[in-house]
Design a protein that fits this description.
By secondary structure, the protein is mostly beta strands. A hairpin with a 5-residue loop joins strand 9 and strand 10.
Length: about 210
C-alpha cells in the first residue's frame, strides 16, 4: 500500500481463527490477514464490509473494532454520515452485519474498543478542544445490550485529562493480570508530530 489514503489503518481485531481483521478509512474497507508470522505477512483478502460504510466521512470511518467471540464483531465509526444525530455502529453475527446506533457526545469521538474478560466492551474515546486540550474517556457497553437494532449507551468509567498523562490515545486492550484483576492498556499515536508522544499506559480496572 502506498499513500495515506490507501494505507490509513485505524482499527484491528483478532478473529476466532487467529486471523487479523483491519479496518481502513479514507478508502473505507476491511481486510482479513490470515494467521502468519510476523502478523500481516500473508496477503490479505477483502472482508465483507457493513452496508453504508461508504457514506461515512473520509476521515471518520471505523475506528473501533473488536471480536466478541463465536464469530461476532462490533464495529464503531468515528463520525456518522452527515446529518445523522446518533453515532454509527454495526454488529456482525450469523455471517451478516446489523446496523446499531450509539449515543453520541459531540466532544468525544470513538477511537478503539476491547473485549473485557466479563464479556462487556470497553470503549475508548478522545477529545481535543482549544480550551480544554486533549482528554480521553473509557466507557463500558454491557454485553447484553449489544444486539441488532439496539441503541448503545456506553457508561463512563473514567476520564483522563490534564494534569494526568494524556495524549492521542487510539488503542485499547484488556485482559487478566496475575492476581485475576482486569488490566487495561492504552496506546497513543504521535502522528510523527513533535508535540505528541507514543505512550503505552497500563491501568487496573476496579470493579
Amino acid at each position: 500500500m502506498t499513500g495515506k489514503r490507501a494505507a490509513d489503518a485505524e482499527a484491528m481485531a483478532r478473529l476466532d481463527d487467529g486471523a487479523l481483521l483491519i479496518a481502513f478509512e479514507q478508502r473505507h474497507r476491511l481486510l482479513r490477514y490470515p494467521p502468519g508470522q510476523p502478523p500481516t505477512s500473508a496477503r490479505p483478502t477483502a472482508f465483507p464490509p457493513p452496508e453504508g460504510i461508504k457514506r461515512l466521512p473520509p476521515n471518520g470511518g471505523i475506528e473501533a473494532l473488536t471480536a466478541l467471540g463465536q464469530g461476532r464483531l462490533l464495529a464503531v465509526a468515528e463520525d456518522p454520515p452527515e446529518g445523522d444525530v446518533v453515532g454509527t455502529a454495526w454488529l456482525r453475527e450469523g455471517g451478516a452485519w446489523h446496523r446499531l446506533s450509539i449515543a453520541r457526545n459531540l466532544l468525544f469521538r470513538p477511537t478503539a474498543a476491547a473485549l473485557l474478560p466479563v464479556g462487556d466492551v470497553l470503549l475508548l474515546e478522545r477529545r481535543f478542544t482549544l480550551i480544554g486540550g486533549a482528554a480521553a474517556r473509557l466507557s463500558r457497553i454491557p454485553a447484553g445490550t449489544i444486539r441488532p437494532g439496539a441503541v448503545l449507551e456506553p457508561a463512563a468509567l473514567a476520564e483522563i485529562a490534564s494534569p494526568l498523562t494524556v495524549d492521542n490515545y487510539e488503542g485499547v486492550a484488556a485482559g487478566r493480570g496475575p492476581g485475576g484483576e482486569t488490566v487495561v492498556y492504552l496506546i497513543s499515536d504521535d502522528n510523527t508530530n513533535p508535540l505528541q508522544r507514543t505512550l503505552l499506559m497500563q491501568f487496573r480496572l476496579i470493579e
